[in-house]
Structures are given as C-alpha cells and as structure tokens.
Amino acid sequence: VEEQPAHDEL
Amino acid sequence: MNIFRMLGDLSHLISIFILLHKMQTSKSCSGVSFKSQVLYLVVYVFRYLDLFTNPFMSYYNTLMKIVFIASSAYTIYLMSTVFKPTHDPAIDTFKIEYLLGGSLVMALLFPPKWTFMEISWAFSIWLESVAILPQLFMVQRTGEAETITTHYIFALGAYRALYIPNWIWRYMFDKKAKLETIAVVAGLAQTLLYSDFFYIYWTKVMKGKKFQLP
User: Fold this and answer.
1) Could you give the ipTM of this predicted complex?
2) pLDDT at site B57
3) If you placed Cys at B135, which of B33, B43, B97, B182 could pair as Cys (CB 3.0 to 4.6 Å)?
4) Please, are residues B80 and B29 in contact by the beta-carbon 8 Å criterion?
C-alpha cells in the first residue's frame, strides 16, 4: 500500500 | 511540536479571538473584509476534509481544526446577519474569482498526489496564502485601519510567518518530518504579501500611532 502524505500541520 | 509551531497556532487562535472581540464590543464589523472571511472558511473546509478520512493524528490537531472551521463559520454568520448593516460592500471590492481560480490551477498543476483529497489540500494552502488580499485591499482603499483590526491582521499573518522557523526546526531536528514543498513555498509567499503590512504595523501601531498608509 502506497503511503499517503499526512498533513500534520494546521 | 516545537515552540515556533505552538506560537504560530496560538497566534492564529488569538487572531480569531481579537476579531470576534472587536465585533462583539463595537457591535460592528466595519473595516473587516467579508470576502477575506469567506475565503478563510473555504480554506479550512477544504483543508480539514481529512477530519473524516485520515487516521486520527492527535486530540490537539482535531480540536484545532474544529475550532478553526467553527469560528470561521461563526464569523461569517455574524457578518451576514447581526452586523450586516455595518458592513460596506462598496469598499470590499476585491475580485476573489482570480484568487479562487489561481489557487485551483496551482492545486491541479502541482498536487502532492492526484487524489481529490490531496488536490483540495493543496488548493486550500494556495488560497490561504492570498486570502488576506481583499482585507489588505480594503485597508489600502480607506488608507487607514482601526488599531484592533490591525492587531487581527498581524496575529493572522504571524501564524504563517512563525511556521517558517518551524519548518527550519523540523528540517534540522525532526528526522521523521517530511517537509511539504507546497506549504513552504506558499507560506513564504504569504509572508511576503504581508511584509508591507508588517512593516507599517511595526513602525506605527507598535509605537502607539494609528495605522495610516503613507
């Protein structure tokens, strides 16, 4: 499974 | 989490508080751009769609997202109902179609991934970087601004400006962090857009003078 970018900033 | 990001988010919260406080105490939204406020709601709705899809990140993250969406919607509600008579559409005339269109084009051309979620995230980042323009345009048209309004604009701009040292910090010390090019480029552009305002704010308002354009 390709990892999705996680946008951890607001 | 580092000190710059925390201060940035805090600054964003403070800006929301200042804006609502200004409207509630003066019973007026004069000097505030309705168009900018609408753009910010669009920004938060499109960026935080991941509230419903992504794996849970943290209580902090989720709480802040909900606060940003809810307060933005509440501001628009107040401006379009209770305080509507105090809003002057004749000076809030920036063409936001260009900002929406330009952000959409940027998002479609360079998304992190070709998925709806990633394109809407990129769209929101680009749109946020220019969402203050109708507000700055309004200040420019009138040539001056209430001090409280300038505090609001400053706190909102400081939020993204503080993210810049945060990215440098993450790049240097947080090995797991993946820097988001779009966020960094848009964040720098956004801060550049504010630079003129920051300068006048710093040289006038911080010294107790009224915000007036030269």
Assistant:
1) 0.85
2) 84
3) B33
4) no
> Min CA distance, B54 vs chain A (Å)?
8
Tell me whether strands B211-212 and B144-145 are parallel, antiparallel or unpaired. Answer: antiparallel
Taking contacts as CB-CB distances below 8 angstroms, the residues of chain A near B121 are 7
Is the CB of A9 less than 8 angstroms away from the CB of B180? yes
What count of residues does chain B have? Answer: 214
User: What angle in degrees, to the nearest 10, is found between the helix axes of B116-130 and B96-109?
Assistant: 140
Q: At residue B85, what is the residue type?
A: P
Cα of B191 to nearest chain A Cα, Å: 16
- Residue B207 tokens read as 């010294």
Q: How far is B133 from chain A (nearest CA, A)?
A: 20
Question: Which of A4, A5, A8 lies closest to B61 in CB terms?
Answer: A8
pLDDT tens by residue, B105-139? 999 999 999 999 999 999 999 999 999 999 999 99
| Per-residue pLDDT, B178 | 78
Q: Taken in order B70, B30, B139, B15, is the CA torsion positive or negative?
A: negative
